[in-house]
Design goal:
Length: 297
């Protein structure tokens, strides 16, 4: 009889989770801004993947003599930059760098933040105190100043940009995950797993981490936009990806000296940054509303 009761409970729990997932999906697609953000991100991803096909010219090698700073036209939609390169091609290839840095740096930050947050929240005690002190210390530093110092020390490159951003923005993930794990570790299913002799590593991997990933996904979708802004800021300051590799921040920096004469050089990458950040923010807001347990009837 006990076995039958347990099987019934498992089936009911599975059905409840399935209903909750269906409701979450329905709530997400009812949010027009979230759907618009998702569509924009898919389009941007396709642009990044097929940049070589979409861009009509090579972003660094094709130079049109005598076209320096020419405005947009039917043939060259975004005009030319300060050294007579096709601006549309450079902005298209900049999409690849922006998304690659945003997603890769977020992956690094998630891996570090979830690991630290789970360990701190699960074990508590002096382990939690030490890790929490480290998290608070990192969050106390002005992020952009810390990024500038690290990038200047390590030298500008794509690898440096990804690594520096990834290893400095993980603290927010750690703090959120720690708080959730502290409330989870006393739940019945965690206590039961311990009582059955499961090792701490197995409990954290099988039971704790899956239950915090919803919040992590929401936070990551919101933070990718912030990371794209950070990458653009570093490239704008000459501490990000090395020129002539096209990045939105680098193109903005190129147009800074010609903002009055050739404003289009700065306008188009600036608009792309705004659109991309808004898309990720809309997606993150939609995921947060859809996955928020307080919104579930």
């Amino acid at each position: 009889m006990a076995s039958v009761s347990q099987n019934v409970d498992v089936k009911l729990q599975g059905a409840s989770r399935s209903r909750n997932r269906s409701r979450a999906v329905a709530r997400f697609f009812d949010n027009r801004l979230a759907v618009a953000g998702l569509v924009l991100i898919i389009l941007l991803a396709l642009v990044a993947i097929f940049a070589d096909v979409i861009a009509p010219y090579h972003p660094t090698e094709d130079i049109f003599s005598g076209r320096r700073g020419d405005p947009p036209s039917l043939e060259h939609w975004f005009g030319f930059d300060h050294v007579s390169r096709d601006l549309f091609s450079r902005v298209i290839h900049g999409t690849r760098i922006a998304l690659f840095v945003g997603i890769t740096s977020s992956t690094i930050a998630v891996a570090i933040g979830v690991t630290v947050g789970v360990i701190a929240g699960y074990f508590g005690g002096w382990v939690d105190e030490v890790l929490s002190l480290f998290i608070d210390t990192l969050m106390a530093f002005p992020l952009i100043a810390l990024l500038i110092v690290l990038a200047a020390v390590l030298g500008p490159s794509l690898t440096t940009t990804i690594t520096v951003i990834g290893v400095t923005v993980w603290a927010r993930y750690a703090r959120v995950v720690r708080a959730e794990v502290m409330s989870l570790r006393e739940r019945d299913f965690i206590v039961a797993a311990r009582a059955l002799g499961s090792q701490d590593r197995a409990v954290m991997w099988r039971h704790v981490i899956p239950n915090v990933m919803g919040s992590v996904i929401v936070l990551a979708s919101l933070q990718i936009g912030s990371i794209i802004i950070l990458e653009s800021a570093l490239s704008f300051l000459g501490l990000g990806v090395r020129p002539p590799t096209p990045t939105w921040g680098g193109i903005l920096a190129d147009g800074r000296a010609f903002i009055m004469r050739y404003p289009h050089i700065s306008i188009f990458p600036g608009v792309m940054i705004v659109i991309t950040v808004l898309a990720f923010n809309f997606l993150g807001d939609g995921l947060r509303d859809a996955l928020d347990p307080h919104e579930q009837p």
